[in-house]
Amino acid sequence: MAETQTFTSSHLRGLNSGDKFKILGVVQQIKPRADKNNKPFWEVSIVDSEGFIDAKVWSDGKWWDARTGEKTPVDTSSPDISGLFLGAAVGALGTVSEFRGKQQFQFSEVFLLDPERFPISGFIRSSPVPVEFMEREFGEMVASCRPEIREFLENVFSGELWKKFRELPAAVTHHHAYVHGLLEHTLAVTKSARALAEVYKSSGIDMDLDIVTAGGLLHDLGKIDSYRLDPFPGMTVPGTVIDHIALGFSRFSCLAREHGLDKEIETAIGHILVSHHGRKEFGSPVLPATPEAMVVSSSDELNFIMYCWEAFPESGNGEPSISDYHPSAGRRFWRHGLTEKGDG
Ligand SMILES: [Fe+2]
Ligand SMILES: [Fe+2]
User: Fold this and answer.
1) Fewer CB atoms inside 10 A, N or C side of the chain?
2) Which residues surround ligand 2, an ion (CB under 5 A)?
3) Could you report the per-residue pLDDT of 125-151, keeping only the tens digit for each?
4) Beta carbons of 312 and 294 less than 8 angstroms apart
5) Are the beta carbons of 249 and 222 closer than 8 angstroms?
6) What's the CATH superfamily of 9-123?
7) Model pTM?
């Protein structure tokens, strides 16, 4: 494996068709398939600390067990190579190709690596924002609220709940699908909602900034019951069949009752939780009906699509580029290549 250059998953996007590469990571998914001639092949997803790569291993691909340092071939006719490789640290040798204008990857060899030398924790993706910084910002936002709301938020975001909230991802694939992702997304939505609230407040709209803050910080509370890290982001059964909006509202209502939160405040914040997806077809049973709910819902959507825009790869040569159609965002994204130039 020594002569081929090692790339991380995000740097692979800059390679051209025909380029060879090596990648190190953890197998997140491995699916046996058969081609039209009934020859077996595998679809493999490898994650590393910067993202993931989906690749195919054709029937002539080689699978090795190199955990002891010596490589021994793995019998691919055994039905359980999936069990051996799933969740394991691997190295893979691959080639870039192109199909209908889209970059694709093939692995010619996959090596099972020694988990002592290549611990899985080294491949787990985490928020690019330092968690201590985010915790401080979160605390400052809570502290800015009037005592009644501040005390409730301090009570909610404590103990075991806070431990989970600061660790978990905000999604499994679409956005902020990494350690501390929920905290990063929550902060961005709340900051954006507060900024919008200030704009509309100054133009005469009657808006309660503390309700915006509380609603922003609590809007995805249900995600603590919807997602898990083991060690990669995954979905819980309640998250799949009940969804984070219903789970979050139910948890919030219990906490509000336990704390004795004022009923009007409870309803105003509860309305933000249930309406934050903005449309019934996106899972919200009601549409945002208050200025506070409107700014949180708009900020939530904006944070999602902005994340998707940022995640679509640059062309690598500074040229403008257009992304593939993004089904969740319902659009293609465009990097226009313009940059702000100074006066001189
Ligand atoms: Fe949400
Ligand atoms: Fe959200």
Assistant:
1) C
2) 220, 300
3) 889 899 999 999 999 999 999 999 999
4) no
5) yes
6) Nucleic acid-binding proteins (2.40.50.140)
7) 0.80
